[in-house]
Amino acid sequence: QYQLVESGGGLVQPGGSLRLSCAGSGLSLVYTAIGWFRQVPGKEREGVLCISRGDERRIYADSVRGRFTISRDNAKNTVYLQMSSLKPEDTAVYSCDAGPYCSTNNGEYDYWGQGTQVTVSS
Question: CA nearest 107: which of 117, 115, 97?
């Protein structure tokens, strides 16, 4: 069974940092595009960042520019979302999707995880 498993979420104070992980279970993430998305109840799912098969980074949410980065560790079959200078408006469920190329369209991905909650609050 192919799965994506996110971890690393939690409660953090404004200005703090978190690193989210997206691990492939039964699914190789090497040469796979991984997109990070976030969703707040009552709002549409928002694309945040994506790393392509060739390791090109794409920023989809202007609000995270300069604060969030994406990287991958092929040896660990994991893609990371490093978040710093977190703000209350970053509070959301963050999830990762895997597919052949980067896109903000959910339908372009083949696999997705259940998500991990990030709460930014004092």
Answer: 97
Q: Which two tokens stand for residue 105?
A: 């369209």
Task: Evaluate whether 21 touches 67 at the Cβ level (below 8 Å).
Answer: no
State pLDDT tens for residues 50-108. Answer: 999 999 999 999 999 999 999 999 999 999 999 999 999 999 999 999 999 999 988 89
DSSP-derived 3-state class of residue 14: coil
CB 22 within 8 A of CB 78: yes
Q: What is the CA radius of gyration of the chain?
A: 13
Contact predicate 56/50, CB 8 Å: no
Whole-Å CA distances, 61 to 2, 18, 40, 43, 101: 28, 17, 14, 15, 17
* Chain position carrying tokens 């991958």: 72
CB 73 within 8 A of CB 51: no
- For residues 32 and 17, give the distance between their C-alpha atoms in angstroms, rounded to a whole number: 26
